[in-house]
Prior knowledge:
The structure holds 2 protein chains of 2 kinds. Chain A is α+β, with helices and mostly antiparallel strands. Helix content of chain A is 60%, strand content 21%. In chain A, a hairpin with a 2-residue loop joins strand 3 and strand 4 (136-147). In chain A, helix 3 (65-73) packs across helix 5 and helix 4 (82-102) crosses helix 5 (162-191). Chain B is mostly helical. Chain B has 2 domains: 2-40, no CATH class; 58-256, no CATH class. Helices cover 68% and strands 2% of the residues of chain B. Chain B has 13 helices and 2 strands; from the N terminus they run H-H-H-H-H-H-H-H-H-E-E-H-H-H-H. Chain B has a two-stranded antiparallel sheet with strand order 1-2. Chain B is globular and about 50 Å long. Classes of the chains: A alpha+beta, B mainly alpha. Chains A and B meet through helix 1, helix 4, strand 2, strand 3 and strand 4 of A and helix 1, helix 2, helix 3, helix 12 and helix 13 of B.
Amino acid sequence: MNSRAFLFVLCALAYSSLAWSAPASEAEQYLRKAVDEVLATSDRASSPSALAEKVRPILHRHISFETMARRAVGPGWRQFTPDQQKKATQLFTTLVIRTYSSKFTPGERPVMTYQPAVAPAAGRVDVPTKLVYHGSRYSVTYRLEQEGSWKITDVVIEGVSLIANYRTQLDAKFKSGGAPAVISSLEQSVSRPS
Amino acid sequence: MKTALRLLMPAAAVFLTDCTSSKTASTAAPTPAPSSQVATTDALDDYGSTEQVSDPIEPLNRATFTLNHGLYNAIFRPISKGYTAITPKPVRQGVDNAFENAKFPMRFVNSGLQGKFDRAGKEVQKFGVNTFTGFGGLIKQSDRIPSLTDVPAEDTGQTLATWGLGHGPYIVLPIFGPSSPREVVGLAGDYALNPVNWLFKLRGGAEKTEWIPSAVNTVRSMPDQLDKYDSSRANSVDPYVSVRSVFYQNRKAASEQ
């Protein structure tokens, strides 16, 4: 490679890194604000159940539960009627909020360190973080997508994606009994004490 | 930093094909996308199929899974509760630190076997710092040194994965839980590389006190193990499938680090 070509590649690299880091840092700023808001609210909660109630409206603002539910069901989603989709989204939302709020003890703040965000595709940004809570370290990656504003669409804890985990379960239910089986299994899970 | 560069390469390739001759582009294009990225987009696809898991003995595995659940609740949970009741949190943290520090040979050898010599070097530093300035590992002093706080722990299962060995069929082991032929070999390797078990192995475990380190190690790790088990079951639709999925995703992420 001659020196001019090399220079060109360098410029191209610089250009592409610029083009890709702008939405990444924008999404990261958004996530930081969202996380701070949730933590400030959960700090003031008196009990775990009160915590779930208090963070619910905030989570609704920052998490795209519609996208999450659609992906958690996977290939079968297209065969759901609009009513079934609505019902499944509702149940799934309850499960996610319960999962999230059960991990926190009111008044104890996790220490979060943000690592450089990456953009795996246009309109998508992954923000890896390290979280220290109750003396243990966890790696947590937030996946955000541009849906009008930035929204959280998946959380990956220690390599385990919330969406991928639910999809393996719900896909099996769909294959055995279609949309009604998916909905009744979600209902059962919601009614089971967590 | 290196991964960031690798992630940028496909972007550069696209840019180059857009505005230069195909000759320049072909020099940049062959960079393969890292495998973790492929998995990322797959999990995000709306209608893509789920990851294929080999579970030919599912009925037997489900039975063992149910048996384990009973055993955990009837035996391990009471022991774990007793242990947390009689030891204050700082003591438990210290004991955990000391046992994790003692597992240094496992992390060091496996970092080396995977050719991650930089990581092996960091493990030596960590072990040195924690052993000599942290009262034999009771205090994790290495957490105060930024370059040593996030060294991914390598184990034998990850080494086998790095060498290209697949999991094989899914097996639920009695007591141990989710595993696979590869991870069983991995567990055996980790056991052999853990000095806590050396006394027991060398002396045959017949004498009065040789079993103590292994037993303490088992008990002290119970609260954490049960916690992980509970959270992979919680709010699931099918606990068996959820725990299996957590196992596979978790091991995959660990071996890619």
